[in-house]
Specification:
The protein is an alpha+beta fold. The protein contains 14 helices and 20 strands. It is globular and about 75 Å long.
Amino acid sequence: MQEYSTEYWVRQGARIRSTANDIKRNAEALSEELGEELTAIHATFAGSAPKEVFERVIKKMVETYPLSRLDLEVRRDDTDDGVVVQSPQTALSTSRIFDRADKSGQSTPYYEYRDAAMSSVGPYRPEWIKELRTVATGDARDPDVAYNSGHLMHQATFFVGPVNFYWKIGDNAYVEEMDTGDSNYITPFVPHSFASRDPNREAYIVAVTFYGKLEGIQRDLMVLHPHGVEEALLDLSNRARASAGILRRELADAMLGPEQLTSRTGLSSSRMAGFLDGSELPANDELAEISEALGTNLRDLLPPDTMEPGEVVVRHKSLNRHWNFPSDELPRYQVEDLAGCRKASLLKSMVVRVLEASPVAELDMATSTHEFCYNYGSEPAVLYWQGETGIRNAIVEPGGSYYIKPTVPHALRSTSKSVTPELVIMRVGSSLSGDGHLELSSYPRDGLHRVLSETQQWYDPHKIGG
């Protein structure tokens, strides 16, 4: 078994205890039903059992109860005080070249891949990809361009050098000439490709693929019937039809018919019929009445903005989108936003030019997102972050990258007042966003530590009364 830290085993024990609480098994019940010594169960809860005991307890719980390993196992945290920094040398050591067919049908080098900083606790799978094939035309159907089949993950791409970006929507193919500082967003499963258009210039992309909100629920979808899932999908091409789909879902979940909802709200039958067939869009005050009648939050009934199913966003570098952060009076960073999309609203990507030299006076960045950073410029930057015992720092060299966990205070600085490092930062929302964030915020604050690491049985057998 892989060597994990003491902290990992403590978190693993807490997870097993929490799951045992959920299925209403105390240590004694687990001991009897799993055929394990009671001392072994207590040691497992405490995180002090031998590794083979953890594995045995997890295996027996999965075999005995309606649980999966995903209910019981925790992620290994491979960060160093919340950070992973990758050097360009380490990136180079991961280099691999893949061939694709050219216009003659021969397999020739197409991409060189290198890993960038990633972590077992982060949602990213970032890659440095050098385009090895040069095209001679601007045709989106150039026979030397080898499209992929698309992939499940969202993709945000940053371009360096003369790269052609290709994509397909249905039967239509598109191409856009990109260069340093340009960016794009690609919807999952949209076929795409990249190629160089100048053999004499460096041409590569930083492709940051990431899971959106499906990351935590894909395993649930995989056990459902595909037809049922398809039937449950909303029509996001029209807000009224999307609203109708949401309302029909809520009625089915609550075992209510249109007549009961009409009666509870006082809205007219014809108006309600229009809401449910997608011909009319409820006003906010009408949605408020409906949410009250259904006993749900108003925000859960709001339809999203219209979205295209195969949307691709291209954004070229612009000198008009710069601003200073934290402020014009204290310009430590010059920031320019990159391509994004409403369907991946948790993505925030930007070019950052570091204007202030080290040493750091304060850690001026702290975010609830996962953060990936790649140094595409020619100057090193210094990353500072808050560790357990004090402020840590590491050099992010040109061609280097880092990943940093949510809520870790950090800052970037130049190594000298005479240089300005240029980096691309891509942030993706964590569990501290969306519905999960709202639900967690509704819990009693004194129970927060038990959400993060359960330390108690769900009842105290020795306690009398309240």
